[in-house]
Amino acid sequence: MIIFETTYFTKPIPMSTKIDRRNFIQQMSILSAASLIPLNACTMTTSKNFTIGLQLFTIRDAMGKDALGSLKKVKAMGYQDLEIYGYDNAKNMYYGYKADDFKKILDDIGLTTTSGHYGFHAYFNASKDELNRFIDQCITGATALNQKYITWPWLDPASRSMQAFEKLVGILNHVGEKITKAGLGFAYHNHNFEFIDHDGRHGYDLILKETDPEVVKLQLDLYWVCHASKLSAIELVAKQPDRFVMWHIKDMDRVTRDYTELGNGSINYQEMLQKISKSGLEYYYLEQGGNYTTNSMQSIKDSIGYFKENLQHYI
Q1: Burial 221-253 (b: 16+ CB within 10 A, else e)
Q2: Exposed/middle/buried for 179, CB within 10 Å: 0-12, 13-18, 19+?
Q3: What's the CA gap between 278 and 12, in Å, rounded?
Q4: How far is CA 175 from CA 35, 84, 105, 154, in A?
Q5: Count of H helices and E strands in the chain?
Q6: pLDDT tens profile 155-203
Q7: Is the pLDDT of residue 42 over 80?
Q8: Most buried residue among 13, 156, 188, 266 by CB atoms closer than 10 A?
Q9: What is the average pLDDT across 192-221?
Q10: pLDDT (0 to 100) of residue 48
């Protein structure tokens, strides 16, 4: 909030004060400048300075062939921030590089990474000790990269019943508590299966109600919410706006409902981004999981071009 100090505008001038021509001009200059300040200036706020993020899963083929060269191209396209995937926790490596070395690569290129998708689904039925070891490994990797969030990105098909979601909320609270105590944030990323109807209930509603909002934040995949077609993203975020700290922005093919480049699909982002609450938003990432018109690198170039021209000013 911008606050202007105005007490000296109204403080009375003592009678003993000598007001000569110079002092009079100075006083009048101050008052004239004050008159130009908008009446609502004291309530003006500055917008968040969001970086343009990319979920690297979009270009997983290119990253697998030439991670360094791909990252340089990503930077040249105008992306500033990354969300990673594919952490090798046994070796503390990302894309074939030790965590510290990968951080140096990002620093040299001029990129940051604020979140990572980590493979928690593999520990859904693991012992508590096994899960805790994995959490600690994720914390080690994320800390080395200076990431703000560790994100749970996926559930195996066998873990999508309501009974499984009832178990999941307890695990999410446990993971979130440990990660929060380590000084990082923890978030859960949705697909469409969280919105499948189970006799009037669905998993995402359970996550909203039964997880601790202080330690379990939410990464909203706008494509998958639209794909599920149960309720709008605007309505969903309005339930607990401050929990939705990250978004995935990707478009939906008009015919197949598969992924497509931004601007080629059916999601009306102009309307959505104007109306959806951004009170909790900290980071967003452009993404396309497949169905590239030409190839993955061309797709992310086309998407950021459309995003900058048509959508960025709404966020």
Answers
A1: bbbbbbbbebeebeebbeeeeebbbbbbbbbbe
A2: buried
A3: 44
A4: 55, 19, 29, 15
A5: 12, 12
A6: 999 999 999 999 999 999 999 999 999 999 999 999 999 999 999 999 9
A7: no
A8: 188
A9: 97
A10: 78
Rg over CA atoms, the chain: 24
Handedness of CA 173, 178, 180, 185 (dihedral sign): negative
Which candidate, 213, 271, 274, places its Cα nearest to that of 245?
213
d(CA 137, CA 125): 18
**Six token digits for residue 86:** 């594919």
Query: What per-residue confidence (pLDDT) applies to 97?
Result: 98
Beta strands 112-117 and 149-152, pairing class: parallel
Give every CB contact of residue 212 below 8 A, 6+ residues apart in sequence.
173, 176, 177
**Inter-residue contact 113 to 80 (CB < 8 Å):** no
**How many Å apart are CA 229 and CA 215, to the nearest integer?**
28
Strands 244-249 and 251-252: unpaired
Q: What is the pLDDT of residue 8?
A: 27
**Residue labelled with tokens 């951004």:** 278
pLDDT at 231: 84
CA dihedral (243, 248, 251, 252) positive or negative:
negative
Worst-scoring range by mean pLDDT, 117-131, 226-240, 249-263, 280-294?
Answer: 226-240
Q: Work out the angle between the directed axes of helices 67-77 and 296-310 (0-180°, nearest 10).
A: 20
Q: Specify the amino acid at residue 115.
A: S
> How many residues does this entry show for the chain?
315
Q: Which amino acid is at 168?
A: L
